[in-house]
Amino acid sequence: MVIFRVILILIAFIVVLVLALTNSQATASAVHVFNKTYTDVPVAFVMLYAFAFGALCVGIFTLVSEIGLRSRLYRQKKEQEGLMEELRALRNASLEGEYPPKNPAENRTSADGGA
């Protein structure tokens, strides 16, 4: 799946590069960005910057999602380790004894009648 994603990204970069090269002789346009106006900007640069901004936004959202998934996976692994430890303790506990088993010294004093 990762290879498929890398191939799609490479194809997208190639398409953008081809579009930029074919439109490099295109007419210039005016671009309005945050109350500023840039005149005589080639269309190829506008397309390239729009693509880069879109890729940056997708990267940020993916990073946030990845951090959330990794933290969830870490919590679930810790919970699984705790459950496995409890299962081991239950498997090793004697059938007549208590759970969790007490120290052997405490078991001897209770067997002596509490003395």
Fill in the keyword field for this structure.
115 residues; mainly alpha; rod-shaped
What does this structure look like?
Helix 1 runs antiparallel to helix 2. The relative contact order is 0.06. It is built from 3 helices and 2 strands. It has a two-stranded antiparallel sheet. A hairpin with a 2-residue loop joins strand 1 and strand 2. The termini are far apart.
On the 0 to 100 scale, the average pLDDT is 79
Principal-axes shape call? rod-shaped
Decide which structural class fits the backbone.
mainly alpha
Outline the biggest β-sheet. 2 strands, antiparallel
Number of helices, where a helix is a run of at least 4 consecutive DSSP H or I residues: 3
Low-confidence stretches: none
Strand order of the largest sheet: 1-2
- List how many beta strands DSSP finds: 2
What series of H and E elements makes up the topology?
HEEHH
What distance lies between the first and last C-alpha atoms, to the nearest angstrom?
Answer: 68 Å
- Radius of gyration, whole Å: 32 Å
Percent strand equals 5-15%
